[in-house]
Amino acid sequence: MSEKKRVGVQNYRFIELEPTPTTAWGKFKRVLKRSVKLELFVGLKVTFREMFKALFMGEMHTVKYPLEKLPISPRYRAIHEMKRLLESGHYRCIGCGLCEKICISDCIRMDTRYDENQRKEVVEYTINFGRCIFCGYCAEVCPELAITHGGRYETASEQRASFSLFEDMLTPIDKLKEQKEYPGFGAISPNADENIKKTPLAY
Amino acid sequence: MSAVKETKKTITITIDGKEIQAEYGKSILQIARENGIYIPTMCYLTKVEPIASCRMCVVEVEGVDGFVLSCQEKAVDGAKITTNSQALFRERQNIMKLYDVNHPLECGVCDKSGECDLQNKTLEFEVDEQDFTAKEMHRPVQNWGFISYDPSLCILCEKCVRVCNEIVGSEQLQISVGGYKSTIVNTKPDNDCVSCGECMAVCPVGALVSSDFKYSSNAWELEKIPSACAMCSAGCQLYYEVKHTSIDNPEPKIYRVTNEFEFSNLCGAGRFGFDFENKTAFKDSRKLEEAIKAFKKADTIAFSSYISNEEALLLSKIAKKVGAKLVCSDSYGLSRFLKAYSSVSGKMLWDGTLEDIATSDVIISFGGKIAQDAPMVKNHIAMASKRNKARVIYMHPIEDYTIQNLVTRFIKYEAGSEEGVLAMLLEFLTRDKELDSKIKAFIDELDIGYLSAESSVSEEEIESLKLDFWKRKRFSLIIGSDIFNHERVENIAKIIALIEKYTNFKLIVIPPASNSLGVSLICDLEKEKEGFVVGVNAPGDFTLSSLGDGDFDLPAFNQIEGTITTINKQVVPLNVALPYDGYILNDIAKELGVGSDLTIDLTKELPKEKGFESIEFDELSPNAFSVHGEDLRGYKLRNVTVEVNFELEEVADLESFDGTIVYCVNPSQNPNPFTNKSHLLQSKATLIGSKQFATAAKINDGDRVEFEMDGKKVTRVFRIDTSLKGTIALNPIFDMGLSAFWVSSYRFKKVNINKVGSGDE
Is B466 in the A-facing interface, judged by CB distances under 8 Å? Predict the structure, then answer.
């Protein structure tokens, strides 16, 4: 009873094993049976099938990193991106400094000034990726959806304190059409339109 | 504080169920604040009379229909007041809803974001949507010198208008009333205002901001370092707001200066002239050795008043050790004045304070170009003028058109005749008083006719003061810095002391430079320098300079810890806003065996017999104010009693000042070489005179002229100012570097003006 208790209530079944040969002749017969009856190839059948598919049918399963990369979830939090306005192509950042303020590893810094068009201009903007912990707060707090996370997850670099400048993170102007909205923290909710209440206008 | 004692009635009121004892005459809001009860306000500013434009401070008073404005309603005995109820919350919420109509949603870039009253109150009263609407208008940003005004951000709380009129007395800003179209207007945009930035400081939103600071940093990124302004003897409270210079440069930089604007004021020099730090210094041991050698062989240590009390004490210790004389040209006059003054008055210092000026109803300002020399004194005169309709009698050789609106009577006297004019004043003021026989003899001996003729102050003018004094109760006498370097300063001081003693005038003396009062109390000064001169912020054979142009560098006022002594006889602490990399005076003193571990260890060693107290530097508060704005920074000097023992000299023959005279005066925004180092205030000095002066000196507008002042040749471009009269020209000295501190003879100087060219070359 005690042994049965140990194996639980599942319906285990003992497999019928051939008795282990004891004589020399018996052992020789088993070797012959296993090798000559090609039992080995039963096991290799799957391997050969996949090899055939990979070589001749273009269904390769491994990725040649770093030449090739796996697609990554759009919500993944990797190196930041700076977005542009789709209409004008101007960068979206207004220099409000909220990302700088909220950053818990204190790695964002910006310099701003009063420009010729009487607007606030971001003169310089850096993120110290040596310190960044990719928490995503900056993307969440950004009121303009300007700073977001991208998919570039390789952060190793030759220099310990690898800074990234605004221009490096900014969507290249010729790739403006390929710019995707970030769906992670800080993105507008799918039902955002329903939540908008219009300001009354008297004119 | 007032000269006339008034017994205040005590009343008992109930606020939110709490029984409170208070003085009769105070508003409900004042009493609530005294007792830590919160009543929200938008337009209330402690330092001015209630504005009552926002109606946020409404409260319910039992038995009164409707709401009561707590800021202007005086509490009466037995009143039962509720500061918070559903109805009040709704009322305040509605006010906020109206304030928020069309307020641009640009908090993201606005300079005020993070310290904005509108933001705070909008959140407090839970306004998260706009229910009302008004047509958006085109309202462009206006630039007023150092200040930029954005009408679309303005909430018309009127704080700026009120401080400009009531505190500064400029009457520059006004409200143009037109319902939703109302704006603040700068009535004299061409005529540059005094640029004190007071309007900007009190603005609760981002409508008035500094053009220089605009968009350069968010408020929350800046570290506030409490300190005091050391640009003149007023020693106003301020904060240096510091942050790293840029991404590439981690060195701290002062971005702007702010202050406790609810209670205290700043002038343009303090607010905009903040980057005068000595950047050139580094620890150069060779130079340190040179400096030590220089001090060891010094016969005279010459210095200016632009040093802290502790440094002054260090210098007197060094002087004692090496057996050198101490010479301070800009404080010497004051120290002579004080000695003579206390021999008559029996006390070390004058009694009056700036607050006394503000509560006076008759003010005599004598011997100083107040608006330029001491903007804070001018501000307090303006307060008295606006609040008490004070009679302001301005006595000076030059009429000042910039304070025309404050001055009710201008009495012009001839340069150099101060002693005579004061003697006439003494005679007039003490006419019906019981006098000591010695003083009576002095007054009887006065030849009023001669004095009147020579000073060109007619007897009628003095007599007419009677009209000004009619039914007035609180009197102030302000003594400017012209007299300190007058040859007869001792006798002048005695006459002033007599006026103070025998009349109910409160006396306020304006120390001529930043820490003149501290220096003249701490150091025993001598007049003439001799032998090898070591100059500390003054020219010498070996010069130590905070401007960075001497043989040895010293830290400037925004790089040191220490105290200064102000016009209010208050010892206020300065803090380090920016790092200083070089050696300081204490390092030299240490090598000479008289230094202490830190310079501020000397704060408690300042001379007790002169009224200083034995308090550690770290115990002095740099920014403490009471709920009602009483200045509690540092500590007040004890007014030490001195033995009365004096002889009055006869009034000397008045020297006549004919021909072309220049008067050394700096503009209020640029009072010394330090402010002239700052990037905002840096300017070119020009000699300014009237048409009459130009004719007398045979020069024209735009001419380049040369003249000699204290044995030093000065070249200036001459400009005619049509608002000036007479043959006295105004000569600024802020561009003369350390030698500006050396211009120490009588401020009016007879000079020969020679034309040497034209224009700026």
Answer: no
Is the same domain home to A107 and A163?
yes
C-alpha A2: how far from chain center: 50
Which of A98, A114, A167, A195 is best to mutate for the B interface (most B CBs within 10 A)?
A: A114
Task: Please check whether residue B156 is in contact with residue B179, taking contact to mean a CB–CB distance below 8 angstroms.
Answer: no
H-assigned helices in B430-509? 437-445, 448-455, 459-463, 465-469, 489-502
A113 and A158 share one domain: yes
Q: CA separation (Å) from B209 to B168, B197, B545?
A: 18, 9, 34
CB pairs under 8 A between A and B: 56
Residue A6 located in a structural domain? no
Give the model confidence (pLDDT) of B511-521 as tens digits: 999 999 999 99
Q: What pLDDT digit, counting tens, does each position of B147-195 carry? A: 999 999 999 999 999 999 999 998 899 999 888 888 999 987 766 688 8
| ipTM beyond cut 0.90 | no
Residues from chain B that touch A161, judged by Cβ atoms under 8 A, are none
pLDDT, tens digit (0-9, with 9 covering 90-100), for A69-120: 888 888 899 999 999 999 999 999 999 999 999 999 999 999 999 999 888 9
Is residue A91 domain-shared with residue A182, that is, in the same domain?
Answer: yes
Chain B hits for A168, CB-CB cut-off 8 Å, are: none
Q: What is the pLDDT of residue B1?
A: 39
Cβ of A124 within 8 Å of Cβ of B217? The answer is no
H/E stretch holding B213 reads none
Distance from CA of B183 to the nearest CA of A (A): 20
Per-residue pLDDT, B689: 93
Which of A106, A112, A147 should one mutate to test binding to chain B, selecting the residue with the greatest count of B CBs within 10 A? Answer: A112
CA distances from B485 to B198, B336, B370, B415, B748 (A): 33, 9, 17, 13, 10
Q: Please give the pLDDT value at position A160.
A: 62
Q: Is residue A74 part of a domain?
A: no
Q: Are B247 and A126 an interchain contact pair (Cβ–Cβ within 8 Å)? A: yes
Alpha carbon of A95: minimum distance to chain B alpha carbons (Å): 7
Q: Which residue has the tokens 């230094």?
A: B595
DSSP assignment string, B536-573: ESS--SEEEESSS-SSEE---GGG--EEEE-TTSEEEE
Q: Residue B363 forms beta bridges with which residues?
A: B392, B476
Rounded to whole angstroms, the Cα distance separating B20 from B574 reads 38
B138 touches chain A (CB under 8 A): no
Residues whose CB is less than 8 angstroms from the CB of residue A5 and which lie 6 or more positions away in sequence, other chains included = none
Q: Residues A116, A49: one domain?
A: no
pLDDT tens digits, one per residue of B234-246: 999 999 999 999 9
**Contact assignment for A200 to B133 by CB distance below 8 Å:** yes
Asked if A120's CB is within 8 angstroms of B109's CB, the reply is: yes
Nearest to A82 by CA among A72, A70, A90, A71: A90
Q: What is the pLDDT confidence band of residue A185, given thresholds at 50, 70 and 90?
A: confident
Domain containing A84 equals 80-187
Domains in chain B, please, with CATH?
10-84 (3.10.20.740), 334-509 (3.40.228.10), 661-758 (2.40.40.20)
Q: Check which CATH number belongs to the domain holding A163 and give it.
A: 3.30.70.3270
pLDDT in tens, B378-414: 999 999 999 999 999 999 999 998 899 999 999 999 9
User: Which DSSP symbol is given to B166?
Assistant: I
Name the token pair of B84.
């918070």
- Shortest distance, CA A148 to any CA of chain B (angstroms): 17
pLDDT, tens digit (0-9, with 9 covering 90-100), for A143-157: 999 999 988 888 777
Q: What is the pLDDT of residue B4?
A: 45
Residue B221 to chain A, least CA–CA distance (Å): 8
In a domain, A115, yes or no: yes
A198 falls within a domain: no
